[in-house]
Amino acid sequence: MKNEKLPKPASPAYEMPSREAWRLFGIMAEFVEGTERLAGIRPAVSMFGSSRATPDSAHYALAERTARLLSDAGFAVISGGGSGVMEAANKGAFFGRAPAVGLNIELPREQRANPYQDVSLSFRHFFARKVMFVKFASAYVVLPGGFGTLDELFEALTLVQTRKTRRMPILLMGRAFWTGLLDWFRARLVADGMIDAADVDLLQVLDEPQEVVDAIFAYYEKRGFEPLPEEREVLLNL
User: Fold this and answer.
1) Domain ranges of the chain
2) What dotted CATH number matches 40-236?
3) 45-94 confidence digits (pLDDT tens)
4) Is the previous residue joined to 43 through a cis bond, with omega within 30 degrees of 0?
């Protein structure tokens, strides 16, 4: 017994691969659930904007009016499910004809899910949630916001520019807020050869809710909202 060796305690280094492998199942489950729940919700528009917009703010009112018009026109409205512009977008759609969809995210400071969600999903991983915003959208509508809003905007721009997703309208609401950014795109990114001049045309800047609805219908007028065969293949590999 004196010479018998006791088993060594498990090393964290050996535990990590097992934990990472099980984590992959959780990620897979988010993709599967999101795809199953959203596959029949088309056409849909993803809306973004500041979570800090208060219900008495102009941005909140603009998002709510825009979402209501979109919903009454037959578009499901997908938002982040939280407060501010996300809540306004869900609220407008909730009282309209088409579904209000909330893609909620679990954060260290817990995000409060707004009550205006016909379809509600919860994600732990930002990247799984981002795929759902793009995969099931026929258009992006982006209101003024901070880093999170810009992150979603540039994600969509990058995927469309690189043809990793189908081309779709990307509509910025609020000329006063967005014009400076587009001017910088042309003065710096285009002038320095970082992007093509045509890349700026992926964006439209509008002010009024009805302009948003009209712009989406104008884009799909001759082709319909369903993805074309080649677009389906792209979306399968998103």
Assistant:
1) 40-236
2) 3.40.50.450
3) 999 999 999 999 999 999 999 999 999 999 999 999 999 999 999 999 99
4) yes
